Amino acid sequence: MKRVSQTTKPEVPEPGHPAPEHAAFAQVARGYYPQVVALFTATLIISNICATKGVQYFTDHSVKLGPIEILPITTDGAWFLFPLAYIIGDVLSEVYGFRAARRAIYFGFGILLLMVVCLEIAIWLPAAQFYDGQQSFHDVLGHTPQLVAAGLVGYFVGEMLNSATLVLIKERTKERHLWARLIGSTVVGELGDTLLFCSIAASAIGIDTWGQFVNYVVVGFLWKTLAEVIVLPITYRVIAFLKKNEPTYAPRETPALVS
């Protein structure tokens, strides 16, 4: 039997020709990129479901600064998870570049659309006579067009800004000052994401005053940026591991935003 190298595509027999001795399979690409993208996408899916719940802390207190509500703190059910998507996005951009990060963002966008469509179909399907949770199922997993638009627009614009900003800073700093591009890109990306998401989704989760809206935006932005700073040591270690173990990590001949 003829031996097939990694760069040679095996011949697929046509109908009527004898089958090869062994079954044919495609090779899995080397590296950690698929695993990082899978974690990135899973984080997006889970956080977009959790974000449909409005959350408040310190509801027994009412503190205002003019029209701005300080307490209670208003946020959503994904506050503890959503920053992870940006941290993984930073890892993708830092290690694999803008083109690879952009591909992951497109993939995540498509998966979010698929999730929304599948959930709507599942809600629309007639419930069995023994199933008593149809209304609860709809209440928890049903997505209004307003929230769908908020999540998709905020995610897409925010992640693109985050990735592009990090890569632009890296073009100037090369391998130095990793902390500056991680934090700088998060500030830009999270600001765009938070403003867009909150502006579109606020009324859908029950925010109905300007004070609550400003609180929602400020708390969301500050928390997500602070989360980046808190886990910076972990992000450093993950990036260092991937740079060391990815066999193709090397300087590019063309600008990162062009490749």
Give a quick precis of the structure.
By secondary structure, the protein is mostly helical.
Output the keywords.
259 residues, mainly alpha, two-stranded antiparallel sheet, 61% helix, 6% strand
Question: Any chance you could write out the topology, listing elements then pairs?
Answer:
Blueprint: H1 33-50, E1 54-57, E2 63-65, E3 68-71, E4 73-76, H2 82-124, H3 134-141, H4 145-173, H5 178-201, H6 210-230, H7 232-245
Antiparallel strand pairs: 1-4, 2-3
How far apart the termini lie comes to: 40 Å
SSE series: HEEEEHHHHHH
CATH structural fold name: Arp2/3 complex 21 kDa subunit ARPC3
User: Numbering strands along the chain, what is their spatial order in the largest sheet?
Assistant: 1-4
**Biggest sheet details:** 2 strands, antiparallel
What would you call the structural class? mainly alpha
Rg over CA atoms: 23 Å
What is the architecture at the second tier of CATH?
Orthogonal Bundle
Number of helical stretches of at least 4 residues: 7
Give the DSSP E fraction (strand runs of 2 or more residues). 5-15%
Q: Please, how many domains?
A: 1
Total strand count, please?
4
Text of the CATH class:
Mainly Alpha
Percent range of helical residues: 55-70%
* Low-confidence spans: 1-5
Q: What is the approximate shape?
A: flat
| Mean pLDDT reading | 82
